[in-house]
Design a protein that fits this description.
Putative 60 kDa lysophospholipase; L-asparaginase_C; Ankyrin_rpt-contain_sf; Serine Threonine Protein Phosphatase 5, Tetratricopeptide repeat; 58% helix; repeat
Length: 266
């Protein structure tokens, strides 16, 4: 307490002529907010919360308490990310909560933050060392999650922090995007470093699927990026073969415009 604050408090207390000496002593011993109030201790508050809930549930075994701690931590962290509450997330981290834990689907906090496109939270988690390579139970990384949500700003942040695409699943992602007409996602895959001629397990490329499902906009985009029209799948079928077979006028015109591609096998 500063000297000025102490004198002000003493002057106020002594001016209370209707107070007893004992009451004045007690008033002098109480802290003045802003002078003697202790700053909150996040770790102590979190441990106190765990202790109170453990006592309420009558949990005594260490394994039970550990399970409770894991469940509470996940709920508190997930809630902070869902509400884009960076201040609360920082406070929870300061309390000693393990932010590297994953949920039952093996989704990390980074997956959750990317799903909500919370830029400040994403940057904070990356600063705290969360891995950009963690895959959930469905094979999704934070990067493919960002692409699925069509957030270029998030994709660029993740790539800058070392995120990359796995070749063994890339072909499946690209062909699904093409078949479903997800142009923006294909563009983001390219920004993330994808080779748009990457094949799936059947030897097919995104251009195969775009021609097969009559996705003219996708075909136009892929051709503008150098997609190979003569790339044969495991059955020897090329995108050019598919467009010729289906005879979609717009796609057929685009596919016939350039004959620079040469047939290549799977």
């Amino acid at each position: 307490m500063t000297a000025e604050a102490a004198l002000t408090k003493m002057s106020y207390v002594l001016s209370k002529t209707d107070w007893s000496l004992q009451k004045k002593k007690q008033a002098m011993m109480r802290s003045i907010r802003g002078e003697l109030t202790q700053p909150p201790d996040p770790e102590r508050e979190y441990n106190s919360l765990l202790q109170n809930i453990s006592q309420f549930l009558n949990l005594t075994h260490p394994i039970e308490v550990q399970g409770l701690q894991s469940a509470i931590s996940h709920v508190l962290l997930s809630s902070s990310i869902f509400h884009n509450d960076l201040n609360r997330l920082v406070k929870l981290c300061d309390s000693g909560i393990n932010i590297h834990a994953v949920n039952s689907d093996n989704r990390s906090l980074l997956h959750l933050a990317v799903g909500g496109s919370h830029i400040d939270v994403i940057k904070f988690l990356l600063l705290k060392g969360l891995s950009v390579h963690t895959k959930d139970s469905y094979g999704q990384t934070a990067l493919t999650e960002a692409i699925r949500h069509e957030r270029q700003d998030v994709v660029e942040i993740l790539v800058e922090n070392g995120a990359n695409l796995e070749l063994n699943t890339l072909g499946d992602f690209l062909t699904r995007c093409a078949a479903n007409g997800h142009l923006k996602r294909l563009q983001l895959f390219e920004i993330a470093g994808a080779d748009l001629n990457t094949r799936n397990k059947s030897g097919r490329t995104a251009l195969h699927e775009a021609c097969l499902h009559n996705k003219a906009k996708i075909v136009r985009y892929l051709l503008s990026k150098g997609a190979n029209k003569m790339c044969a799948d495991t059955l020897g079928i090329t995108p050019q073969d598919i467009s010729t077979k289906l005879q979609d006028p717009e796609i057929l015109t685009m596919m016939s415009a350039d004959h620079n591609n040469h047939r290549s096998g799977p």
